[in-house]
Amino acid sequence: METVRVNLGSRSYDIALTHGATANLGAFVRAALPKTSSVLVVGDSNSWPHAESIQATLTRAGLRAGSAVVPAGEASKCLERLAGLYDALYELAADRSTAVVAVGGGVIGDLAGFAAATYNRGLPLVMVPTTLLSMVDSSVGGKTGINHPKGKNLIGSFHQPAGVWIDLAFLNTLPAREFISGLAEVVKYGVILDAAFFAYLESNSHAVRTRDPGALLRVVTRSCRLKADVVEQDEYERTGLRAVLNYGHTFAHAFETCGGYGTLLHGEAVSIGMECAAQLARKLGLIGDEFVSRQTKLLDALGLPTAPPTRWPADDLIAVMRRDKKAVGGQMRFILPTRLGEVKLFDDVPEPLVRTVLESAVSR
Amino acid sequence: METVRVNLGSRSYDIALTHGATANLGAFVRAALPKTSSVLVVGDSNSWPHAESIQATLTRAGLRAGSAVVPAGEASKCLERLAGLYDALYELAADRSTAVVAVGGGVIGDLAGFAAATYNRGLPLVMVPTTLLSMVDSSVGGKTGINHPKGKNLIGSFHQPAGVWIDLAFLNTLPAREFISGLAEVVKYGVILDAAFFAYLESNSHAVRTRDPGALLRVVTRSCRLKADVVEQDEYERTGLRAVLNYGHTFAHAFETCGGYGTLLHGEAVSIGMECAAQLARKLGLIGDEFVSRQTKLLDALGLPTAPPTRWPADDLIAVMRRDKKAVGGQMRFILPTRLGEVKLFDDVPEPLVRTVLESAVSR
């Protein structure tokens, strides 16, 4: 078992990386949360087989384990499903010795995490991500939340987990489209923070794409470490440092909002968003053609899309970007690369340039 | 203007105590939140006249000020009204330079505070309490939340305000029953932390009850300071110290839940709860008859009730107490006095004693 430690003072926690060892999760929860006597296991229709065996594991470890299941998909990140989890916690007679165990992808982590953040003013949370995207991104860093009909993740809070349990064997049964979608965030870490990791992905794209266990362990461990490094330095997204993680995301959120949640997987939107961001950076003269083509080539090699499936009106996309959580005073903000492994925040990008990038995105 | 400073590291803030000087609120907000350019003023039908003039004040100070109004009463602390505030924030195009200004009693502070805690993963919050109860209690300490149909404040989070603005002139128009209700928490501070303050209240009960401005300033300032002292030492209710503030509240929440929100005002329930807690402490031999009678006499002198208006079944009350947020593993926990100005946590009180206290409460 490998471990990535996230150092956040009294809120520090371990990310455990295993392969088919989930029978040991009970011991992990007991060690991370010695005072916990009961848990609510939350999953969705996709993760339910994992969630059920995890519930059994936790019961064997002496924990009173209830469960709640929500429909799979982004639409479950809503007030109604949140209220359902509150009811489930109430039925379990949850108190301060109760923890929430989120078994699933980003939707489950965000929704169950937000329920944990807000029930009884905060219950401990254990993340058990079952998708690549949630293993390398959403399970680490403490962001929880649900969607507002008008914007993604508009409602939420920072609530660090007490532990993250990653079982790479869960990736064996993940549908190809979803697995590949998760690789977008992996590529992102290379672009924004680690040129050597980017080069590793270039050289090993086939092993990664075919889920070679050794490649997976390296990719997931390195991604978690890179994200943890950033979160440790800017837990609440205040200094601006954590914003580097949003590379490609201003575009991506606009694609997801205008397309309706569910048309594009999050990672797919991020992949297209990174392509747009790189194009924008090139137009601003921050980087050259070689950067753009290396990134496009890697995304292609991993099976990721680099252009939106339909031509959404640029006006609509820009309107969403101006209301993005990361916008301030209606000004669009972009994280753009200055060289491989380094990005910076730009808040004075001329709108016509953004428009040009959006309008040429489909025809590329 | 008097100021009570709440020292919480990077989350420190000032409580400003004024009398009829709310025209200066704009400057106070500007000083506390130099980066804020827009505000959502939230009030209810009771506080609306204050909220409207505050909105005008903030506009004059150069802030873009939107507003939202919810019906008065505990029933507004629900997911539906919360969703309404999210919508209002969205309509205001709220971003990280937007603050929420809560103008009203505890319901508005809790509801608007929770919206601020969870919109965009946290907006700054300014509390402008308009009732005595919210001035001396709910505006200070960072607790925000809404009710679950089955339990009070079951959903919420800790979110410290960036500033609290108390205008004692607001108390002039407060209905007598509500003003008196707020005095229960004032008496509580004397009982749990400050015997001299308790004695001051005994000697000045008439001046306090008739809202003498000098007495009010002293009572509110001292109450805020005492609460701030506790919150500074146990911001997240983890060490057990903050639990002293729950004196009378385990009983009170049961009365409020069984009676239905709205039958008793919160302070009335707390007053009855303190009477029950004192009776329980006497039966356990922690205190003598003199303590109980001094407390009863002071509550009486201030016009507060010391017995529930109807006889709720003890079984129902005890069932609620076992599910109280402060309960652990179904064990009831009580904060009980050991002498005037000192309380301790007891988690091994025999249920039959609690039952006796509850059953004799009406007939006293």
Tell me what the structure shows.
Two copies of one chain form a homodimer. With 364 residues, chain A is of the alpha/beta class. Chain A folds into two domains: 2-173, Rossmann fold; 176-361, Dehydroquinate synthase-like, alpha domain, CATH 1.20.1090.10. The first copy, chain A, is built from 14 helices and eleven strands. In chain A, the strands form three sheets. Chain A has a seven-stranded mixed beta sheet, with helices on both faces. In chain A, strands 7-8 form a two-stranded antiparallel sheet. In chain A, strands 10-11 form a two-stranded antiparallel sheet. In chain A, a hairpin with a 6-residue loop joins strand 1 and strand 2. The longest helix of chain A is centred in the middle third of the chain and has 21 residues, at 213-233. Chain A is globular, with a radius of gyration of 20 Å.
